[in-house]
Specification:
The chain has six helices and two strands; from the N terminus they run H-H-H-E-E-H-H-H. Helix 1 packs across helix 4 and helix 1 crosses helix 6.
Length: 141
């Protein structure tokens, strides 16, 4: 399973917003703090804003806030917001695949991988990541 750069950057940006929720953060400050290319992050923020995961305010006091409480935003939701389908095999959903002969059971395996990943990522919130990052701990499976 490959996690796209868009997902990685989106989750890191949201964790940064959750860690400092007292004020709006600029895209530039988030990009700098997380060592993310600024232009790439701006396009990711468009998707996050469209999904309601962040809100923005223009002007000198402007920036981004989380669109909801960080505990209510799962990593799985972020992945879907920026990449579309949660899990694909060669661009197709696992349940639509069919293989001949000895590989006929493979779609079931792919579906199991998707289910396990979905379970872990759906129960991991942006608040969990921000808290664990502040504590210097990794997310556990």
């Amino acid at each position: 399973m490959q996690i796209s750069a868009r997902v990685d950057y989106a989750v890191r940006a949201l964790a940064e917003l959750a860690a400092d929720s007292a004020r709006p953060l600029t895209c530039e400050s988030i990009a700098s703090a997380q060592e993310i290319p600024f232009r790439f992050l701006k396009s990711v923020f468009r998707d996050l804003r469209s999904a309601g995961l962040v809100r923005s305010q223009r002007g000198c006091e402007g920036g981004y806030w989380l669109g909801r409480d960080a505990a209510e935003i799962s990593v799985a939701e972020v992945m879907t917001a920026v990449d579309g389908a949660f899990f694909t095999v060669r661009g197709e959903r696992p349940e639509t695949l069919g293989y001949p002969g000895a590989a006929a059971g493979l779609p079931g395996l792919w579906h199991g991988v998707e289910s396990a990943a979905q379970t872990l990522l759906a129960r991991t919130s942006i608040a969990d990541l921000a808290r664990q990052g502040a504590d210097g701990k990794a997310v556990s499976a």
